[in-house]
Amino acid sequence: MRAVVQRVKRASVSVDGELISKIDKGIMLLLGIEEHDEEKDLEYILKKVTKLRIFDDDEGVMNKSLLDYGLEILVVSQFTLYGDARKGNRPSYVRSAKFDDGIILYEKFIEELEALGIKVEKGKYGADMDVELINDGPVTILLDSSKEF
């Protein structure tokens, strides 16, 4: 499982020109699910995302997490995080989870966030989405449950 974590001032997702979700200050999370991902991968990314200290404390130091401040998160599925462009110019997405498998882990991830009391908004799994955000910082962190980077 891979994630792109972006600290945002606000973010939103629209599908077919219709706003379907938005958040204010918090995290915009692009979530990529690999074909062999399991519960352990989900738990790794979940812990990292919720405890990642990327928000300023009273001293202006990035020392606080999403949980510390009770901020919002917008989760958007992104199979292209497993795009492999090492060979040729057209990326291969063979490592990405198939739709039916990926949506199960995507929805479970959202349920786990909600179980922690986090306000969660989400994109539409598998849809062509327009994503807008104001990146705060900018702060962008890459996570991979296989620790490839």
End-to-end distance, in Å?
12 Å
As a percent range, the share of strand residues is: 35-45%
Main sheet specs:
6 strands, mixed
**Strand-pairing-aware structural class:** alpha/beta
Question: What is the alpha-carbon Rg in Å?
Answer: 15 Å
Task: Catalogue the unreliable spans.
Answer: none
Which quaternary structure do these chains form?
A: single chain
Order of helices and strands: EEEHEEHEHEE
With helices defined by DSSP (H or I, 4 residues minimum), what is the helix count? 3
Give the overall form. globular
- Range of helix content: 10-25%
DSSP E strands, number: 8
Arithmetic mean of pLDDT: 97
Characterization of this structure:
This protein has 149 residues and is an alpha/beta fold. It contains three helices and eight strands. The strands form two sheets. Strands 1, 2, 3, 6, 7 and 8 form a six-stranded mixed beta sheet that branches. It has a two-stranded antiparallel sheet with strand order 4-5. Helix 1 (39-51) packs across helix 3 (99-115). It is globular.
List the helices and strands and how they pair.
Elements: E1 2-15, E2 18-23, E3 26-32, H1 39-51, E4 55-56, E5 62-64, H2 66-69, E6 72-77, H3 99-115, E7 120-122, E8 129-144
